Amino acid sequence: MAKPLRMLLVEDSERDAALLMLYLRRGGYAPEVRRVDTRAELRSELRDGRWDIVVSDFNLPGFDAFAAMADLQASGRSIPFVVLSGELAPNVIETITAAGSRFVYKYVMREIVPIIDEYMRAPE
Predict the structure, then answer these.
(1) Quick check: 80 pLDDT over 90?
(2) If DSSP states are collapsed to H, E and C, what string results for the chain?
(3) Total structural domains within the chain
């Protein structure tokens, strides 16, 4: 039986979102996903939604993953945050991980499944 997963996905690419859903289903999840691509939508979902995890592309129109992380922190909610993006400079990745978030390259997107497994097993 597939494991339930409520994911807030901050992503402007429908193609990348569909590929992520494929990997999650192959990884044994039944994802319930709300995809947002504006900061206003993100803030609204952080305020009103119940999420197990937030996954965010790094570069989005009008904001980036650092802004999304700041919005999550400002919401006062403790939700795991994973950045899923293409090539980034090593110092940017270091900043992401130093902030307590995880990073996965899109070209190895399947590697997000074990990270989600870790978060889903962790006690709250």
Answers:
(1) yes
(2) CCEEEEEEEECCCHHHHHHHHHHHHHCCEEEEEEEECCHHHHHHHHHHCCCCEEEECCEECCEEHHHHHHHHHHHCCCCCEEEEECCCCHHHHHHHHHCCCEEEEHHHHHHHHHHHHHHHHCCC
(3) 1
The structure tokens listed for 70 are 């700041």
pLDDT above 90 for 123: no
CATH number for the domain spanning 85: value is 3.40.50.2300
Which residue range forms the structural domain that includes residue 36?
A: 3-121
Contact 65, 58 (CB under 8 A): yes
